[in-house]
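job 3f2a | input accepted
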Amino acid sequence: MYAIIETGGLQFRVEENEKVKVPRLQASPGETFKIPRVLFIAEGDNTLIGTPTLNEAEVLASVMQHGRGEKIVGFKYKPKKKYRRHWGARQDYTELLITKIAHPAFLPTKEKPEVEKVEALKEVPEIKGKMVKPTTLTTGKEKKKVIPPVKKIEKKEKPETKGKIVEKKEEKPKRKILGFLSERKK
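job 3f2a | predicted structure (186 res):
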């Protein structure tokens, strides 16, 4: 199960027991809190998308530490004008540990039913003279794979040209080259 949260104007994809660095939050290390803006939650093929947020979603995180990121260097200059500007900046961040992702729609179930598989067809049946490929059919939540029948390709007959005279199209005469150019090529 994973969720997409928004904090500090940025969006993060988080999972349980994962550490993530977000822009600095006003919380002390060791404190646990609920992240208010949860945009998306997914578990397997089931997804919930907020409009814009999911109200009943719960993502709990505990603050591990505060820190500063790597230095970002900025530099501007204008050629031939003796204009140079150089600066550096470090972004403050808070490291969070995601402890819980929950939503009432994703309640844990005790046992999930197993999907039964039907054996593949051993014989290849013919339907109205067309061959059909064997397929494996499944029941349950899995998608059924349907393969259309294979079409027979009929060969087109070529027109016979034996014994017949085929007229060739006349080629257009080539352009005459100017006098001084024709002398060089000879």
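job 3f2a | DSSP finds one helix and ten strands in the chain.
job 3f2a | closed
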